[in-house]
Amino acid sequence: MVCLVPQAGGFDALWYGDCAALVSRPGEGCEWVGQPVEARAGEGDKARYFAEQTGLAPVEALRQPEYRKYFQEARATINGRGGSWLFSPDAAASEHVSHRHVNAPAGTEILLCSDGFLALLLYRLYRLEDLVAAARSHGLADLAAQLRAFEAGDADGREHPRFKTSDDTTAVLVRLT
C-alpha cells in the first residue's frame, strides 16, 4: 500500500511492503519511492533455487503437499516473527510504515503500483524510466494485458522463476496540477 499526502512543494509518501510509487517530474528521469524492486527479484532467486533443489517448476511446487508447509511457514512471518510488515488491521503494523517527503512540481506524474504490476520491470518488458510514459500513452489496462500475456507464456515460472503464475496488477496513474 502507498499513500500520498499533499504537502507544500510535493507530497509525503507512506508505504508498506511491496508497493511503490514511480515519480516522473517534467523534464527529469523517474524516481522510485517504496520497497526496491530488488526485493521482488530476490523472490525470483528463491524460486530458482527451489526449482533446482526439487526439479519442479516453481509454480508447481505450491501444489505439492510436501512443500506447501514451507510456503505457509514463510507466509506466517509477515507482520511478526522477524518478517516484513504489510498493511493490515493489526495496530502494530502502523509502527512499520516507511515515510519519505518527495519534492514534486505541478506536472509531475506518479504511478502508484503493486509489486505484481512492477513485474513489467522484472521481466524487462519496460525500463523504469519508460514505464510511467507507457502508462500514460498506452493505458494501465493495456500494460496489465501485456503482463498477463507474458506470464501466460511462462505459466510454470521456468523462464522467469516465481512461485505464482501471476500476481495482482494494481496501478493508478495521477498527475499533479
Summary keywords:
alpha+beta; 177 residues; 7 strands; four-stranded antiparallel sheet; three-stranded antiparallel sheet
Descriptive account of the structure:
The protein is 34% helix and 21% strand. The protein has 6 helices and 7 strands, in the order ββββαααββαααβ. Helix 5 (128-138) crosses helix 6. The model has no long low-confidence stretch (mean pLDDT 85). It is flat. The protein has helices at 37-54, 58-61, 65-75, 119-122, 128-138, 140-152; strands spanning 2-7, 10-15, 20-24, 30-34, 98-103, 109-113, 171-175. It has 177 residues and is of the alpha+beta class.
Short summary:
By secondary structure, the protein is α+β, with helices and mostly antiparallel strands. The protein is built from 6 helices and 7 strands; from the N terminus they run E-E-E-E-H-H-H-E-E-H-H-H-E.
Question: What structural class should be given to the helix and strand makeup?
Answer: alpha+beta
Overall tally of structural domains: 1
What is the string of helix and strand elements?
Answer: EEEEHHHEEHHHE
Residue runs with pLDDT of under 50 for 5 or more positions: none
Strand order of the largest sheet: 4-3-6-7
| End-to-end distance | 23 Å
Mean pLDDT: 85
Largest sheet: 4 strands, antiparallel
Secondary structure tally, helices: 6
Give the topology.
Blueprint: E1 2-7, E2 10-15, E3 20-24, E4 30-34, H1 37-54, H2 58-61, H3 65-75, E5 98-103, E6 109-113, H4 119-122, H5 128-138, H6 140-152, E7 171-175
Antiparallel strand pairs: 1-2, 2-5, 3-4, 3-6, 6-7
